[in-house]
Design goal:
Radius of gyration: 17 Å
Number of helices: 5
Bound molecules: zinc ion
Largest sheet: 6 strands, mixed
Helix content: 10-25%
Low-confidence stretches: none
Shape: globular
Distance between the termini: 28 Å
Number of domains: 1
Order of helices and strands: EEHEEEEEEHHEEHEEHEE
Structural class: alpha+beta
Number of strands: 14
């Protein structure tokens, strides 16, 4: 069994971008599916969460998740519990953070961009789910705003941008390509013949730079969820019939 998740050398707290390795789900959900609403057997997903918690070194009762809606809302997670019971989502949102020691926050993805933020000075951690709608809505910047409102200095934030569908695979309509080029600059779109490919992770990085995150404090992982079917679920590659990853960060300074 390989490692359950990928990490960034930049983040000084336990965290991970889960791969599909090390779980008990089968078929198109093989094996570490962490999505309950995609058609997998519930008991298997529950076991996968237990394995994730064991590997993360944190109890399931202190993991906070959100019901993701492709918007820009950010929630603050309260204190969890030391139990091994998975908690229900804390609300409809696409970003969340916690200031509670020992708690962890996570977002679910299968192609969308996961972003983990750590404020080692103010001791806050956040997770963001940024698909094209969330990226267009600047959800990562809203997460930074929420941390800044609590006292975080953006120039001290450490950020890891995780595996997602990269521009090698993310062909979009000419209309969406034009929209993103207007919003973020022409280098987020790669034109090949009459195909347009969107570099969503690049747009997220530009969003974070605009709100004061330093380039040297961002680690942008290069893995493409669509290219690597052995390690990742991909909503687009698998035409919607696939599992979900969890991308998490633990408040442990
Ligand atoms: Zn690719």
């Amino acid at each position: 069994m390989g490692s359950l998740f990928i990490t960034s050398a930049l983040l000084p707290v336990p965290h991970g971008f889960a791969t599909r390795t090390g779980g008990v789900s089968e078929g198109r959900f093989a094996s570490l599916n962490l999505g309950f609403t995609v058609g997998d057997v519930r008991e298997r997903v529950e076991e996968n969460y237990r394995r994730l918690a064991a590997a993360a070194g944190a109890p399931l009762g202190s993991l906070h998740l959100v019901k993701q809606v492709h918007g820009d809302r950010v929630l603050q997670a309260g204190a969890g519990e030391a139990s091994q019971a998975l908690r229900p989502a804390i609300g409809d949102a696409d970003a969340l953070f916690t200031e509670h020691a020992g708690n962890w926050v996570g977002v679910s993805t299968a192609d969308c961009v996961p972003v983990l933020l750590v404020d080692p000075e103010g001791k806050r951690v956040a997770a963001v789910h940024s698909g094209w709608r969330g990226t267009d809505a600047d959800v990562s910047a809203r997460a930074v705003d929420a941390l800044v409102a609590r006292g975080t200095r953006p120039e001290r934030l450490l950020v890891a941008v995780g595996p997602c569908i990269q521009q090698c695979c993310y062909v979009v309509s000419p209309e969406l390509a034009r929209h993103f080029a207007t919003r973020f600059g022409s280098d987020v779109v790669v034109a090949r013949g009459d195909e347009f490919r969107l570099d969503l992770a690049r747009a997220v990085v530009l969003t974070l730079r605009r709100v004061g995150v330093k380039v040297g404090n961002m680690d942008v992982l290069q893995e493409c969820t669509s290219c690597d079917s052995s390690r990742f679920f991909s909503h687009r590659r698998d035409t919607g019939r696939t599992g979900r990853h969890i991308n998490f960060v633990v408040h442990r300074f």
